[in-house]
User: What shape does this take?
Amino acid sequence: MAEEFFIQGNEACAKGAIAAGCRFFAGYPITPSTEVAETLARELPKVGGSFVQMEDEIASAGAIIGGSWGGTKSMTATSGPGISLMQENIGYAFMTETPIVIVDVQRGSPSTAQPTMASQSDMMQARWGSHGDYEPIALSPSSVQEFFDFTIKAFNLAEEYRCPVLVMADEVIGHMREKIVVDDNIEVVARKKPEKTDDYLPFENIENGTTPMPAFGDGFNIHVTGLTHDERGYPDTNTPETHHNLIKRICDKVLNNKDKICSVKSEGCDDADIIIVSYGAPVRSAVEAANRARANNQKVGYVKIDTPWPFPDEQLKEITKNASDVLVVEMNLGQMYYEVDRVLGKDTNVHLMGMIGGLLPTPDEILDEINKIGGN
Amino acid sequence: MRTEIRICGFGGQGIILAGIILGKSASLFDEKEAVQTQSYGPEARGGASKCEVVISDTAVDYPKVQSPDILVAMSNEALIKYIVDLKDNGILIVDPGTTDVEDVRDFIEEHNIEVYEAPATKTATDEIGLKIVANIVMVGAITKITKVISKEAAIKAIEASVPKGTEEKNVAAFEAGYALAE
Assistant: This one.
């Protein structure tokens, strides 16, 4: 039996979190993400979970890191100004390999800019926001159903790779209402706990992977630090090899599993001259634009990137190999565009349709760009 | 077929709930596709409030309303502000108690708009004894006039959307609105 709901994206995100086993939320309310917190404040206690409204976003990120080390799947939700404040602790979570989920319902930026309007201006902050070398995983939903599904997926990936996972939504998807179908059988990845043995290493140098993670109180007496640490977790800040091995493993466990993590959808790309590439809410406009162009006998296809990070280089190259032109549509002045250009720029003309101001690009506006490129 | 509906009025009239009920009726009970969006900003309190619904037999890709087929106005300010986007030959439903169609008569003539008057606020006050159910009265009128959702689906959606204990009054409000347009 599946259940159906007609709800907002932010409510679907909260539902997804609970379905994925999240039992701790700490956050600071911010438009346009507030309904995620509001829903979880109401629903978490009903399933034995806890909700804490923190004093700010740094504390929120700190609290969910603590929640996760306490053995509870944990998340926060915010928007641009909040994700800026969280960056220090996000870096700490990457360094300590702490599974957490961070939801960013993006709004007009920089600074506090446009609280109630949509944008995709935090995509590079998701990638490079904290200092240092790390490889984030980020998912971008394009529908209310996907906001539900991707939140579950985010928790599963966080457990699988023992790292923070970001759900990069936007105001359009956060606030619109659509039908979602909730299946009875949802695949949930449980926390892998270690066996209590004498030679257990909480940060063991396992190729492309991680070691199971104990919770505080399980009796492992482990040390968790943002300093460069050895396999036991003890600080070792002056040995180049220790740092190299640790950071390489933190990056490689994501990079060398890209074929399992990356997800891309596409349609009409085999014979397309022009391919629209987008993610998040603009996909909705891109699909309609591509369908209308096809109806008008223009060879146009589209690619929808589900996982902006790690960037799906190989899939994108393969799907777009026959196209002469690629049009990147995003609600910023060019962020993922530079990634697409890095991957395809040698053989393909990569164009940017970057829109700011807070409104979703319309199919007509995309069709105008296609016609400018030469889709006639 | 894609139908774009815009409902507008004052903040506080239940404009958003009216739109949610249309979307819920179509997508959960009429086996159609629907997306509901709303104006979201400081103007939502006291000023003009706007709620939009796209209903279609096939997947709704672009989720926003561009040029509505149906405009429902429950305040004069909103009527004047939003009528300009209404499609040629489109349907306009107004509450004559809170709007004056004469103010937009030129647009109506020029674009061949089909106009219906549904005294939702008066009906809610006189027949149900509760002014606050004017939005549900209007949902009844919209259902009857436009047939964009079925009566059965609308009643199920109302029962699923209104606060517990108020179902009966709200369904009565819907029936009164449905009867207005007969």
Notes: The first helix of chain B runs from residue 15 to 29. Chain B touches chain A through 20 residues (CB under 8 Å).
